[in-house]
Amino acid sequence: MSNTIQPIFIMPEDTKRTTGRDAQRNNIAAAKAVAQAVRTTLGPKGMDKMIVDSVGDVIVTNDGVTILKEMQIEHPAAKMVVEVAKTQEDAVGDGTTTAVIIAGELLKKAEDLLDQEIHPTVIAKGYRLAEIQAQKILKDFAVSVSFQDTLILQNIAITAMTGKGAEANKEHLAGLILTAVRKVAETKDGKIKINLDDIKVEKQVGESTDHSELIEGLVLDKERVHPSMPEQVHNARVALLDDSLEIKNTEIDAKIQITDPAQLNSFLEQEERTLREMVNKIKASGTTVLFCQKGIDDLAQHFLAKAGILALRRVKKSDMEKLARATGARVCSSWKELTADDLGHAGVVRQQKIRDEEMTFVEKCPNPKAVTLLIHGGTEHVAEEVKRAVIDAIGDLNAALREGTVVAGAGAGEMELAKGLRSYAQSLQGREQLAVQAFAEATEIIPRTLAENAGLDPIDVLTNLRVAHDQGKKWAGINVFSGQVMDAWEAGVIEPLKIKTQALSSATEVAEMILRIDDVIVGRSAQKQTPGPSQYGMNMDGM
C-alpha cells in the first residue's frame, strides 16, 4: 500500500498564487515601476508624457494623476499606488507626482531592509513612527500665510505652474488666479472658505496663452434660442428659472373630444394665451435676460424675442447655481412666482462665436461669488495642459489659505525633514531605528529627482544641500538652472504645507499596506484567462 499523500486543492485549479518574498518582491517592483513612470515629470525641468488611448486620442501632460489615470494600469499593487495620486488630487489638487515618488522610494528602501531579514511589520511600525514625527517637524518649520501676503500667494501659483505647459505665461496667469480666488473666497468664523466649484476654468483654442482672461461672471457654451433676440444686453436684469416655458401635459391620461372646428381654434388660442401670459409675467418683472433650466416652446421663444428678452434654455443645474452666485439672482421654480426681487444683475450679457461654437458671456457682475478663468492655447493639447496647470495652481492657493501654512519648495522642505528624522532615529531603540533612517533617506528622493531631471549630479547636489542644512539654512534648496544651492524662500519657490503632509501620510499608508502583503491570490477571470504573475509580473515596461 502506497503512503503517498494526495494533495488537497481548496481553490479552483486555474487560480494563481504567489506567496512570501516572491509576493512582496512582485508588489514592490510594480509600485516602483509606477513611481518610475512619473518620476521624470517632477520639477521645473520635468519632461512630459504623451499618452495615446485605444481610440487614438492623444494627451500630452506632466500632471502625475492624469498620466496614471490614462495609463490604465492593471497590476493590483500598482493600482494601490495610483490611488495615492487620486487621493492627493482630491485632497489638495497638486503634488500627485511627489506622493507617488515618495511611496515608490519608501518601498524601495523597505526592500533593502527585507533583504537584511527585518520583519515587514517592524518596517511598517518604523515607517508609522517616522511619519508621525515627520508631520510634527513639518508643522514646526512651516510659515503662516494670509490673504494680505500677496507676493507669497502669487509665488505659490507661479511655483505650481513652473515646469508645466503654462510656464511661459505663469506671472500673467498667477495674477488672474489670485484675483479669481479673492473674488470667490468667504470668511466664516475667522477661517477662509473657498469653494473651488465657484471658479470655472474654460479653455479656448485659437489665441496664445497670454490672451487668457478672468471673466467676472460666467461663460456658458449655449446660444440664444431665437435669432431675433438681442445678441448683447447691457445692465442686464437676470432671471433664473427652473421651470419650462411650455404647455404641460396632464399627469394622467386624458382624452379631449372636439366635435367642431371652432372648438379646435379656441383650444389652440387658449394654448397661445397661456404662453403669452408666461412671457408677459416675465417681462413685467423687469427681466432682460432669461436663463431657463428646462425647455422653451417655439411660440414662447417668438414672444420673448418680440419682448426684446435674451433667453437661453436647458442650462445645466450646476451652471444655474453658479449664475445665482455670480449675479445674485434667485432660482425660481415657477414663472408665476417670478418678481423683481428675484432678479440678479450683470454689466453685460453677450453672445460671441468662437471658432465654430456659440458662447454666452455673463460679465461685469457687481459682486460675483462665481467667476470664470478663460484659458487660451494655440492648439487643443496646449490649451488642455495649461488648463490642468491652472487647476493645480488654484488647488495650491486654496490649500495654502485654508490651512494658513506654507513651506519653501525646491527640495528644501524635504532636506530639512530628513535632517530632523535622522536625529529622531538616534533616539529610538531596536530595529525600528533602521526603518526611520530609511524613511529619512526616502524623503530625499525629491531633491535627488529634481537634480536628475535637470541633468545635474544628484550626489553632489545632495551633499551640498546637507552641508547647507547642517549650517542652519533651513530653506536651502536646489536651483535647477544653475545647479547651485539657493535660498528657496528668497527665490519665491513656495508650496502649501498641505501638499507635503498629505503626500507623506498617503505614501506611508500605501507603503505599509503593500509591505504587509505576503500572499497574492489571483482568481480566474471572466474570460477564463487568468492574469497570473506572468501578466502582473515584474516587467511593467508595457504599462
Describe what you observe in this structure.
The chain has 543 residues and is α+β, with helices and mostly antiparallel strands. The protein folds into two domains: 239 residues, GROEL, domain 1 (Orthogonal Bundle); 144 residues, GroEL (3-Layer(bba) Sandwich). Helix content is 46%, strand content 17%. The chain contains 16 helices and 21 strands. Helix 9 links the parallel strand 11 and strand 12. Helix 5 crosses helix 13 and helix 7 crosses helix 11. It is elongated. 45% of the residues are buried.
Question: TL;DR of this structure?
Answer:
The chain folds into two domains: 17-144 and 407-517, GroEL-like equatorial domain (GROEL, domain 1), CATH 1.10.560; 218-249 and 256-367, GroEL. Mean pLDDT is 79; it is low at 526-543.
What structural class do the secondary elements suggest?
Answer: alpha+beta
Overall 3D geometry? elongated
Largest sheet: 7 strands, mixed
Strand content: 15-25%
In the CATH classification, which architecture of the largest domain applies? Orthogonal Bundle
Helix content: 40-55%
What's the helix and strand layout?
Blueprint lengths: L15 E4 H20 L9 E4 L5 E4 L2 H7 L5 H16 L4 H20 L4 H22 L1 E2 L5 H12 L8 H15 L1 E3 L2 E3 L5 E7 L7 E3 L2 E3 L11 E10 L19 H24 L4 E4 L5 H9 L3 E3 L4 H11 L3 E2 L11 E11 L2 E7 L7 E7 L2 H24 L1 E4 L3 H15 L5 H12 L1 H9 L4 H13 L5 E3 L6 E3 L6 E3 H19 L3 E4 L21
Parallel strand pairs: 7-16, 10-11, 10-13, 11-12
Antiparallel strand pairs: 1-21, 2-3, 4-17, 5-6, 8-16, 9-15, 10-14, 14-15, 17-20, 18-19
Helix pairs in contact: 1-3, 1-4, 2-3, 3-4, 3-16, 4-13, 4-16, 5-12, 5-13, 5-16, 6-7, 6-11, 7-11, 8-9, 12-13, 12-15, 14-15
